[in-house]
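Protocol step 4 of 5: obtain the predicted structure for the target chain.
Materials: sequence only (see below). No template structures provided, no constraints applied. The aim of this step is simply to have a reference model before the mutagenesis design in step 5. Sequence pasted as it appears in the construct record:
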Amino acid sequence: MRSGVACCLAGDIGATNTVLALVTAAGGVRQPILTRTFQSADYPSLEVILDEFLGGSSAVVQRATFGVAGPVIDQRVQITNRLWGVDARSVAAHLGGLPVHLLNDLEALGHSVPQLQAQDLVVLNAGQRDERGAIGIVAPGTGMGEGFLVWDGKGYRPCVSEGGHSDFAPNNEVELELLRYLMARFGHVSVERVCSGLGLPNIYAFLRDTGREIAPEWLEAELDAANDATPVIVGAALSDARACSIAKRTLDIFVDVLAAEAGSFAVRLLATGGIYFGGGIPPRILVLLREPRFMSVFLAKGRLRSVLDAVPVFVINNSGAGLLGASHHVLLGD
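Step 4 output (C-alpha cells):
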C-alpha cells in the first residue's frame, strides 16, 4: 500500500463474519486496496476488529460505511444473533472523529444490486424486467433478511425492512403442523424461525420429534459435535455418498418456504424490477433452486400468477455483494 493514500473504509458486519475493505475513488468498488475477513465471534466489539485491520496501515481513512445485520435505529444497531452491537458515534470517536454511517445489511446489499454484473448472478426466471420497477431482496443466511429498492426519479434507492421477522405462513398440512410445533416452543413464529440458518435445525427437529422421519445415528453424532447444525444438515441433504431422508426432507421444506415467502414478497412490492436472492444459503443450494418445483411454488399466488411470471428472479452468486454495496455507499459520500 502506498504511504498515506487517501481512502474510505467499508464493512459488511454479520453474526458470523465481518469483512472490511479500504477503497478509493480511482479503484472503485471492485478494486479495494486492502480487504480482510474476521470471525465475528472471536472479537468483543467492532472497534477491536478495526484496530487489528488498520494496525500498521499508513492509509488515511476519510469516512466509513458499515452494513450491519440488524435494525439500525439512530445510527445504533444490536447485531441480530450476536451479543455485541455497533454505535456509529462510538466508532467515529474511535477512528478519530471521521464520518461513520451504518446501513442495515439488506440496505447495503441493496446498494450493490445496481452494481452487479452478469457473472455475479444466476438466473432462475428471465421474466420481463421493468427498468424502473420495484426490486425485492430475500436473503437467508444466519437469519432471514428482506429489503427492497424503489426508483426515486434519478436512481434506485435501497430501503430497510425487517420482513424476516414477520409471521411464517404455512402453505400445506405439513407446514401447518410445523407451525404448531414451533408455536409450542417459541410462541410467535417468524419466517426466520423456519427459513434461515437458524431455522433449518428447527425443521429437522420437527421431522425427528414428530416421527415423520428417522434420524440416523451417524447424523445425530455429527450434529452433536458441530457448533453449527445447518452446514451439517445441508451437506447431508446434498451428499451423493450416503442417502439421508430426514436431511433431504428438511431442505425440501426449507426450499418450499423460501419460494413461497419470496413470491409473497414479490406480490407485496409488485417487484417488476426483479427478486434477488442474497445471503449465504442460496448459492449453496442452487441445485434445488434450479429445479422446476422452486419456481412453481414461487408462482403459486392464484390470480396473480401471470404477474409473477414476468418477474425476473436471480440468485446473487457473489459472496462479497454486501461489501460491494457498503463500498458503493461510502464512495458516494452520502
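Step 4 remarks: The domain at 6-111+321-332 is CATH 3.30.420.40 (Nucleotidyltransferase; domain 5). DSSP finds twelve helices and 13 strands in the chain.
Proceed to step 5.
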